[in-house]
Specification:
heterodimer; A: two-stranded parallel sheet; 6 strands; 60% helix; 7% strand; B: 13 helices
Chain lengths: 382, 476
């Protein structure tokens, strides 16, 4: 990371110094195509086969027996209770194995419990039992779906009030993408959907919103600058904003991933805690989906919506007429915090007067250009 | 000096609050209450049939269950109503199967003639110490048997015991009961309405009691709900012509309403369905707890190593910030555990582990902003304030959204999701508090220290990627 002024840095150095110029929007179409492909395949399979719902949603009984029990022996026991098709699974772990048996509703909870305990040679209190009636399962599902709907509506309202409706729509598209993407992965892989999965998906939506807001906050700020300079198109500005916050996005993803990865490692390899494993798996899939959807789905949607506004459409026409390059121009175009710090976040401050002003015809600085000093601002608090 | 004081004050305040609270928590011996899945125990979700939607009746059902659970001697039972469902958590219960059986029984209301009333020993009117009467165990308390049952008590009082004959009428004979304050009367009474069959049965009872036959030597009928004598009104007429019977007895409004509720509850066969049962053995519970804590610790250490490597001295600010955050979190959870019975479940632990990421993100937003400012040619010292202002706007917007989400989840769901949402929401609020009262003043103070900004290995300037060789504060 030497890079004295004017010298070109390596890719990592540029990342560290916020000087990347990745063309996110240019790749949006490709990404959209990939996402649509996964989602269509996933949902197709979902319709054909359905999700592998856990007993908490469908009803049923599950017994978890500690100790080294052979699957065949457990199956024999279950057959003697008239449940030959029970799902039997060994949960690993350094500290000894556990056997999990799941059956449809109807099996006698306590008798099976006693029989399995005898098989494993443990006290029957050591056998963990979960018994859920089908009606309760469907209530849980219904409540979770209802909460999700309210959640999305509330977030839409909040973003519309705090920023603007176009950003709310862009966020919604990204969120729906995340949900469908995660569902598709579950449908394609046949992983079991448990309450832990639902919790994880909801968490991811939280992350996704958080991430989106950080990006949009920067876009919002730069949009105000753009309104007075008119130097680039809205899309380019969005792309620059993405590059500016790229390191933040990466750092956040890494720091979010580290705890999740440790949940997964501890949960599945060291201690064999099934619930932790379920959480971590869903979180991992969802984090990947949301890290990708925020720059590559939400932001392009926002740019697309904004370019339809007459103000930005005419700006684009003018710039195209003049032959200003409209590709990504590096993260330092609109350097840090151009807006006065105490400016109120009003969305209507972008005046139309900006349009009459001639845009400064300075060429967009390339990433290797010396750093443009930001003009001294008045009205600083002291 | 003034500026410094403005910075030191909140910093000192939050340190005192956080570590003071932690010290107090440790001194009192509070620690977070553990949920079932972490310490073992049994949990049941009971639900009345769809057509029962009288909340007072459901509350009465909960009251019955609470008494049964208390009788079982479970240390810290947690019985809550979530919507129409009754969620019962019995941590550390020894005989899970028996507990579930006892809770699952439907409570029956019975009218039993009173043979004798025995005040507790040591009070006036108590019998000379002969063989003490034994309260009939629950298993033998059936409608057809002669039983000895206690009356209602408050606190640790010894109950009055009632020797009772077989039940003459049952809850299903009651069609309604209301607390009334009739005109021309001076006190509250309960108007009990029988079904026509019920009235016949009750009249047989009344006749026997009015004549003080041996089965009803006291001339009173005990109203028994779930093994407890709720009331024992004396019968004053041999026959009741109308199916409306009035119970009087110096009731105040609350007592009358309570009695009416017991009768009404008894009239409905509130057959609670076991919707979900789960038991966790103590061994598995503590294994899960260990795994959760281990994963949390490992995750935190990895995150901190990464941040220190990336942000140098500013990374140390995150370490300290997380300590403050952790102290607050621990105190709040312990306090809520002790006062509200809030139990930390595995989902809750996961929520906290996950929220480490969210918390750390606030610092990242701030530090990246700081880097931007410094890169744009400002001195670190002057960047600190501006960048915090901008970053806090972002953090506030993002945390608000996260909090709205967590609140809705907590409000609208049941079970694991609910516990998770609570801890996520709590962490979000603490995150805002810590970034405003801790990270802001600390970074501002450090930004004023030359030793800190330019030290070779701890250099904040390096961490903030200052363009090389630009002297602090200089502008091109």
């Amino acid at each position: 990371m030497k890079g004295a002024n004017g010298k070109r840095r390596g890719p990592l150095g540029r990342l560290y110094h916020g000087e990347t110029d990745i063309d996110f929007l240019g790749r949006a179409k490709l990404c959209a195509a990939v996402s649509v492909l996964v989602i269509v395949a996933g949902l197709g399979l979902l319709v054909a086969r359905g999700l592998n719902l856990g007993i908490d949603f469908e009803g049923g009984t599950s017994w978890t027996v500690p100790g080294d029990v052979a699957v065949e022996d457990a199956r024999e026991v279950m057959s003697s209770f008239g449940v030959p098709d029970a799902e039997i699974q060994v949960l690993g772990g350094v500290e000894g194995e556990q056997l999990r048996v799941q059956a449809e509703p109807g099996a006698d909870r306590e008798e099976v419990r006693a029989a399995l305990a005898e098989l494993a040679g443990v006290d029957s209190a050591e056998v963990q039992v979960t018994d859920v009636s089908p009606s309760w399962g469907s209530q849980i599902t219904e409540k979770a779906l209802r909460a999700l709907a309210f959640f999305l509506v509330a977030i839409m309202i909040y973003i519309s009030l705090r920023f603007e409706w176009r950003m709310a729509v862009a966020t919604l598209v990204a969120l729906i993408h995340d949900i469908l993407f995660t569902l598709s992965v579950y449908s394609l892989t046949g992983f079991e959907v448990t309450p832990a999965t639902v919790v994880a998906i909801l968490t991811i939506l939280g992350y996704s919103i958080y991430d989106g807001i950080v990006v949009f906050d920067r876009v919002d700020e730069n949009a105000r600058l753009l309104a007075s300079s008119g130097a680039t198109t809205y899309s380019t500005m969005v792309n620059d904003s993405l590059n500016q916050v790229l390191m933040r996005t990466l750092n956040t993803s890494i720091t979010a991933l580290l705890p999740v990865a440790s949940l997964l490692i501890i949960g599945s390899f060291v201690l064999g805690a099934a619930t932790l494993q379920e959480f971590a798996l869903a979180l991992l899939i969802g984090l990947a989906a949301s890290a990708y959807s925020s720059p590559l789905i939400a932001s392009p949607v926002l740019a697309w919506l904004k370019e339809r506004e007459p103000r930005y459409a005419s700006l684009r026409n003018r710039l195209e007429g003049r032959g200003v390059p409209l590709v990504a121009t590096g993260g330092t175009t609109a350097a840090a915090s151009p807006a006065p710090a105490d400016e109120k976040p009003e969305l209507t401050t972008v005046t139309n007067g900006a349009r009459t002003r001639r845009p400064a015809a300075r060429p967009a600085p390339s990433s290797s250009a010396p750093i443009t000093p930001r003009p001294r601002k008045k009205g600083r608090r002291r | 000096m003034n500026v410094r004081r403005r910075l030191i004050l909140p910093l000192a305040a939050i340190l005192v609050v956080a570590f003071g609270a932690l010290a107090a928590t440790l001194a009192v011996g509070n620690s977070p209450a553990l949920g079932l899945d972490l310490q073992g125990g049994a949990s049941v979700v009971l639900q009345p049939p769809d057509d029962v939607d009288d909340t007072a009746v459901i509350d009465q059902a909960i009251e019955v269950i609470r008494q049964r659970v208390d009788a079982l001697g479970v240390a810290e039972p947690d019985i809550t109503r979530q919507g129409n469902a009754i969620v019962i958590e019995l941590p550390g219960v020894e005989d899970q199967q028996r507990a579930l059986e006892v809770i699952g029984q439907t409570a029956e209301l019975r009218f039993r003639p009173v043979r004798a009333v025995i005040p507790p020993a040591g009070t006036p009117g108590a019998p000379p110490t002969t063989a003490p009467l034994v309260v009939t165990p629950r298993d033998e308390d059936v409608a057809e048997a002669e039983v000895t049952l206690p009356g209602e008590v408050e606190g640790d009082e010894e109950p009055v015991l009632y020797q009772l004959s077989p039940a003459g009428a049952l809850g299903r004979d009651v069609s309604d009961a209301q607390a009334v304050f009739a005109q021309g009367q001076t006190e509250w009474s309960v108007l009990l309405t029988f079904t026509s069959e019920g009235l016949e049965r009750f009249n047989q009872l009344a006749e026997a009691c009015f004549n003080a036959q041996p089965t009803c030597a006291r001339g009173a009928v005990a109203i028994v709900l779930d093994g407890t004598v709720v009331s024992d009104p004396t019968i004053q007429e041999p026959q009741f012509a109308s199916n409306e019977v009035t119970i009087t007895g110096n009731f105040d409004e609350e007592e009358a309403k309570d009695l009416a509720l017991v009768l009404r509850y008894g009239s409905l066969p509130v057959q609670l369905e076991q919707e979900s049962v789960s038991t966790v053995s103590p061994t598995l519970g503590s294994d899960s707890l260990r795994a959760g804590l281990l994963a949390g610790a490992l995750g935190t250490v990895l995150v901190l190593i990464y941040l220190i490597a990336y942000y140098r001295a500013l990374g140390l600010v995150v370490v300290l910030g997380l300590c403050v955050w952790g102290a607050l979190q621990w105190s709040v959870i312990s306090y809520l555990g002790a006062s509200q019975g809030l139990a930390l479940s595995l989902a809750g632990v996961t929520g906290i582990v996950v929220s480490i990421g969210v918390t750390v993100d606030s610092y990242i937003v701030y530090f990246e902003r700081l880097k931007d400012e410094v890169r744009a040619g400002r001195s670190l010292r002057s960047s600190v304030d501006r960048s915090f202002k901008r970053a806090f706007r972002t953090i506030l917007a993002a945390d608000t959204a996260a909090f709205i989400g967590a609140f809705l989840l907590w409000w609208l769901t049941v079970g694991a999701v609910r516990g998770f949402a609570f801890f996520l929401g709590l962490s979000t609020v603490l995150d805002l508090v810590v970034s405003y009262f801790f990270a802001r003043p600390l970074v501002a103070l450090l930004g004023r220290r030359k030793a800190f900004t330019s030290a070779r290995f701890l250099g904040v300037a390096r961490g903030t990627a200052r363009p090389d060789r630009t002297p602090a504060g200089a502008r091109p």
